[in-house]
Design brief:
- The protein has two domains: 5-68, 434 Repressor (Amino-terminal Domain); 87-182, Jelly Rolls (Sandwich), CATH 2.60.120.10.
- 27% of the residues lie in helices and 30% in strands.
- The strands form two sheets. It has a six-stranded antiparallel beta sheet.
- It has five helices and nine strands.
């Protein structure tokens, strides 16, 4: 699995440069502190997938452009064969496989997400829109606001993604789930 942090950072900086905007302007418009945005653009820290969706909406580009540097072209359907979607690794414990990268005009972003059991500290994040998670394997602890729930394979949850939320594998095995985020 390839960590694309550097490539994504270069693309984020390129979008900002092309729009002739300052880091402070982009950070304010996308709801993160300028220090955080600066770290993302420098490749010093991983960019949350949810924030990539926010950046793509801000720049009016497809998330595919940020993830892969390519463009989406499919207008009727797009098939992603098992294991062939662009992979992004975050903090060595979150692995994302983007499933709809070549479909143009998406209103949602689907991912297969694997959370390794080594994640000890829960990281909460927020983003606009809604999120749906369906557990495929393992046990997933999901915290949404003040609520914490453990989900088993076949369980799902739908929530307002503006509420602080985070996921952890429960137990000694990785948890894998389908995540769908509205764009």
């Amino acid at each position: 699995m390839v960590n694309q942090r550097h490539d994504i950072a270069v693309r984020i900086k390129g979008l900002r440069d092309a729009a002739d905007l300052t880091r402070a302007t982009v950070a304010a418009a996308t709801g993160v502190p300028v220090e955080t945005y600066t770290q993302y653009e420098a490749g010093a820290t991983d960019v949350p997938m949810s924030y990539l969706v926010v950046l793509a909406a801000f720049y009016k580009v497809d998330v595919t452009a940020i993830l892969t540097g390519g463009d989406s072209h499919a207008k009727v359907f797009h098939v992603t064969r098992r294991g062939t979607g662009p992979m992004v690794e975050r903090r060595h414990v979150y692995h994302y496989e983007a499933l709809g990268t070549l479909f143009t005009g998406k209103v949602m972003e689907p991912f297969i997400v694997t959370v390794e059991p080594s994640l000890k500290e829960l990281h909460l994040n927020t983003h606009p829109g809604q999120e749906f998670n369906y557990v495929l394997s393992g046990m997933l602890r999901l915290t949404v606001g003040e609520n914490s729930v453990v989900l088993s394979p076949g369980d799902s949850i739908y929530f307002d993604a503006a509420t602080p939320h985070g996921m952890q594998a429960e137990g000694k095995s990785a948890a894998t789930f389908l995540a769908v985020i509205t764009a």
